[in-house]
Design a protein that fits this description.
Strand order of the largest sheet: 4-3-2-1-5-6
Oligomer: single chain
Order of helices and strands: EEEHHEHEHEHHHH
Helix content: 40-55%
Mean pLDDT: 96
Number of domains: 1
Low-confidence stretches: none
CATH architecture: 2-Layer Sandwich
Largest sheet: 6 strands, mixed
Number of helices: 8
Shape: globular
CATH superfamily: Ribonuclease H-like superfamily/Ribonuclease H
Strand content: 15-25%
Structural class: alpha/beta
Radius of gyration: 17 Å
Length: 230
């Protein structure tokens, strides 16, 4: 296993929706995994009151209703500040942060920070199993949702769309990809940051071409990693 995969942090959010600028964080998790994929210590877990209605479509995914968030959720600004602090702690130690489809979580976190008058987190050491797996095993057929990729790499995911379960599964998938594709991933963690941005751009352009050719001629690519420029 590459050195950068032997100690990792993992991060995931569940939110009010898919719009990266307007979605609010409902639950989030940050944890540390060791070389064997075991959780080190207790994971950081948050339930926030987003102060807006949680659409039924979102609640059906992660299980948190507006009523539950209002009754048990903590102040959103405090939660966002604590998430940023937890991520900074790992990044400052040189520990990479794994997030599956990283632009989703980091872009939402970025706009949440701005919304609450906080200094946004600048992701500098990120591992995105979605981007890396697509690069390393480009021609494998099938979708690349976390549940599907976890099954392919024989990583258990027993509670999908629970922030902690998804975060930990993503980290273990990343370690499995790192082992299986070590020859294609012989980069330093710093080199991988630029490589992933290049790979994500290529993947987004390819997907956009497919969509324009087969589904919607007006489809536009959505390039940006690990933050979307919105």
């Amino acid at each position: 296993m590459p050195e950068w995969a032997k100690r990792i942090a993992v991060f995931d959010t569940e939110t009010t929706g898919l719009d990266l600028t307007d979605a609010r964080i409902v639950t989030a998790a940050v944890a540390e995994l060791d070389e064997a994929g075991n959780i080190v210590g207790a994971p950081h877990e948050w339930l926030a009151d987003p102060k807006i209605e949680i659409p039924e479509q979102a609640s059906n995914v992660h299980g948190i209703t507006t009523e539950v968030a209002r009754a048990s959720g903590r102040d959103a600004k405090e939660v966002v500040a604590e998430i940023i602090a937890a991520l900074l702690s790992f990044q400052d130690q040189g520990v990479a942060i794994v997030a599956y489809n990283a632009p989703y979580d980091f872009t939402i976190l970025h706009h949440e920070a701005l919304r609450h008058g906080l200094e946004p987190f600048e992701p500098k050491l990120v591992l995105d199993p979605l981007v890396i797996d697509k690069f390393a095993d480009q021609y494998r057929r099938g979708k690349r949702k976390l549940e599907i990729v976890a099954e392919f790499y024989k990583v258990p995911l027993l509670d999908a769309h629970n922030a902690t379960a998804d975060a930990v599964a993503a980290g273990r998938v990343m370690q499995a990809v790192a082992k299986a594709q070590a020859g294609k991933l012989a980069f330093s963690i710093q080199e991988l940051q630029g490589k992933q941005a290049e790979w994500e751009k290529s993947q987004s352009l390819s997907f956009a071409k497919y969509m324009r050719d087969n589904v919607n001629p007006n489809f536009n690519e959505d390039i940006g990693w690990p933050l979307k420029p919105r």
